[in-house]
Amino acid sequence: MTPEPNPSPSPISAASQGLASCHVCGKVSPVTVGHCPRCDTPLHLRKPQSLERTWAFLIAAVILYIPANTMPIMTVQGIGGAEKNTILSGVVRFWEMKSYPVAIVIFTASVLIPLLKVIALVWLCLAARGRSQTAPRSLSRLYHITELLGRWSMVDVFVVAILVCLVQLGAIMTITPGPAALCFSAVVILTMFSAMSFDPRLIWDRHHEKPNPSSSLPSLPTNE
Amino acid sequence: MSDPASNSTTTSEPRATIKRSRRWSTVWIVPFVALALGAWLVWEHYRSLGPLVYVRFETADSIVSGKTDVRARSVSIGMVEAVTLAKDLQSVIVAIRMQPDSEELLREGSRFWVVKPRISAADVSGLGTIITGAYIELDPGDGREDVHHFDGLEKPPITSSSVPGLRLVLEADNPGSLNVGSPIYYKGFEVGRVEQRSFDIKSRRTNFDIFIGDPYAELVHEGTAFWNSSGVDISAGADGFRVRTPSFQAMLSGGATFAVPPGAVVGKEATNGTVFTLFPDEEATRKATFVADRRCLLFFDQSVRGLQNDAPVEFRGIPLGRVVDISFDYAPTGEKRVPVLIEVDPSVLRNPSQKAANEKIDLAEAVSQGLRAKLGTASLLTGALYIDIDFVEDAPPATMGKVGEYEVFPTHSSGLVQLEAKVNAILTKIEALPIEDTLNKFGDTAESLTATTTDARAALAEINKLLSREETQNLTAELDATLNQVRASVSSLGPSGAIQGDLHRTLDELRAALRAFKTLSNTIDDKPNSLIFGRDNKGGDPVPRSRR
Ligand SMILES: [Zn+2]
């Protein structure tokens, strides 16, 4: 990955040698062995059905993203009636209360990051299929960022969970989680699964495939 | 990617053929599950929302969307979702999201009103809402139809329609201090409340909607009279002064009492919506147990000064009705007599059996028999008049006519006309007196008196003549001399006179001699021998008197 990896026209990949790294212990063995000689994990050249799984989790996340944002995430039953808050109404509320930092944090963690994560994964999947001309290194960086940020988008769910546990003052104030909380946690988990399912090596596979004109079996990675 | 593939093909090692017969990987279940889960959550969310209801209020005062909740008997059953101005800008439409399964509450006749702090003399309510904020109360109706658009009440009804009881209307000319929330009493026991007070512009009376609780509803009959029992009632009657005070609360906030007045027909049990008259006091109900439903017009050709609205109309002292109005508005053009509109209840004159049969009193028949209206003097002090309806003897025949919508009741002149008749009668009596004879006799007497006077004058003249004679005047001097002599003789005879002094002395001496003689005679009577022995001898032998 240092300055110029491309000048050498034929960097030899492990897969081209028929070698696969174990998913669990990382030991490199010939894929023909079938199972890792060290830990007996099944060996694959690439994560099996990587793109398919990524897409599936991604689509599920997108589906649940809609109710997560439109339905109330929590109901505050306090003096003067019950109040139902969606994530966006909460953001608007904080913004109106001039708590701009809080509004920005909630908006970023709860709306923006999941959305960006989904977009990034879609982009990566398309790139893995060769639908994007973006440099593989940029894509690789995007993948790292996606994985890194994805964990922090659980903020809202944690906030709701903590509030529900802490604020139970009987008649004065009660907070109950709404259906959006469930959807939201599902979105976060599904995007994490989606990111985990993605095999970043596919980006590089596509990249190395391009300079090599002898593409005899282009369908192989997709099958696996 | 081609490298491993070519590699694997070039090396002619035996290699397992990769078979992926399944077209769909199991992982695709995940989005379907997500879809199902999301759909279920959304469906569940909207299903749990319940029906949306629109209520129209005059103002959205203290209604906040998302905060104000809707309660039925203190159970929260919904939440205000939105408050918008109505299209005509005259009211507000409050959209209420009811809780699921609350369709049963949204029936025809359901009532909505805002519960907020209300403080008045008669009623303190909704104080709790000072802290918790106002809420909308729902009183479920009993209609069949589902309704989702309602008109909200501006004021809370005091009793919800689900409470069994009797709802009546009281009409009052003078409502007094009776107000919303004022209690209704029966024999001092609180059995109901005034729910609403309104003013009827047409009849110019105050209407009260009242509620009588269920166990007491059967106390109200058609013959029941309601009267205002607020304040202290002091009445002076033939039996002296009476002071009646209601309960303290009734004194403060007013109250009404009802009962069947003595002598009145009880009638059937009252039904919802029956209209009763609210009398100013209990006394009035006794006097006015009638329903003045017949309006008649009277025309008087004399002054009605002293006759006022509400003046009584009586038949030989029995109240029949009252004067409604005195105005030329009721007179046909060219009418010079004063029109007086009265309302009467002729059924007062029926006996109970007639009342039961609901027989009508035929006024026209009575008029043909001489029933007439007259002005009577109710009070000599104030000159107040009342209308006296009575049979008049020798009245000129009359019938009941009609002017406009009113029957015209024939009148009979009274007052000045009657006075004239009385004066006539007096004059007739005077005429019958034997004034002429008296005058003749008086003339004779006068003549003889004249003669006597003449004689007297002649006698006086002779006396004068006699007196003026000289002899008569000298006689006076002689008389004077004689009198002087007489006075002198008399004075000598007086106590200080010389004759009387001598006489006194002689008499004294005579008296002393007589006394001595009397003593002597007494002594001789007692002791005849005293002449010999002396007077002092007592007992013993008489001793000759010795010298002392
Ligand atoms: Zn291993």
Task: Describe it.
- The complex is a heterodimer of chains A (224) and B (548).
- Chain A is mainly alpha-helical and 224 residues long.
- Chain A has eight helices and five strands.
- Among the domains of chain B are: 48-116 and 133-153; 165-288, no CATH class; 290-350 and 361-419, no CATH class.
- The longest helix of chain B is centred in the last third of the chain and has 34 residues, at 435-468.
- In chain B, strands 23-24-20-21-22-19-26-25 form an eight-stranded mixed sheet. In chain B, strands 5-8-2-3-4-1-9 form a seven-stranded mixed sheet, with no helix packed on it. Chain B has a seven-stranded mixed β-barrel with strand order 10-13-12-11-17-14-18.
- Chain B is built from 13 helices and 26 strands.
- Chain B has helices at residues 2-10, 29-47, 129-132, 214-217, 248-253, 282-287, 352-357, 363-368, 416-432, 435-468, 470-493, 498-526, 530-533; strands at 52-57, 69-72, 75-85, 92-98, 111-115, 118-119, 124-125, 135-139, 149-151, 165-172, 183-186, 189-200, 205-213, 225-228, 233-237, 240-244, 256-259, 275-279, 294-300, 312-315, 318-326, 338-344, 371-377, 385-391, 401-403, 406-409.
- Chain B is an alpha+beta fold and 548 residues long.
- The interface between A and B is large, with 50 and 38 residues.
- The site of zinc ion has 8 residues of chain A, from loops.
- Zinc ion binds at residues 22, 24-25, 27, 36, 38-39, 41 of chain A.
- Chain A: It is found in: Cell inner membrane.
- Chain A: Keywords: Cell inner membrane, Cell membrane, Membrane, Transmembrane, Transmembrane helix.
- Chain A: The chain crosses the membrane at residues 55-80, 100-127, 148-173, 179-198.
- Chain A: It comes from Phragmitibacter flavus.
The largest beta-sheet of chain B arranges its strands as 23-24-20-21-22-19-26-25
Whole-number radius of gyration of chain B? 59 Å
Structural class of chain A: mainly alpha
| Major sheet size, sense and barrel closure of chain A | 3 strands, antiparallel
How big is the Rg of chain A?
Answer: 23 Å
Strand tally of chain A is: 5
| Binned strand content of chain A | 5-15%
Helix/strand order of chain A: EEHEEHHHHEHHH
Q: Enumerate the strands of the largest sheet of chain A in spatial order, edge to edge or round the barrel.
A: 4-3-5
Count of alpha and pi helical runs of chain B: 13
Most strands sheet of chain B: 8 strands, mixed
Tally of discrete structural domains of chain A: 2
**N-to-C CA distance of chain B:** 213 Å
Number of strands of chain B: 26
User: Share of helix among residues of chain B?
Assistant: 25-40%
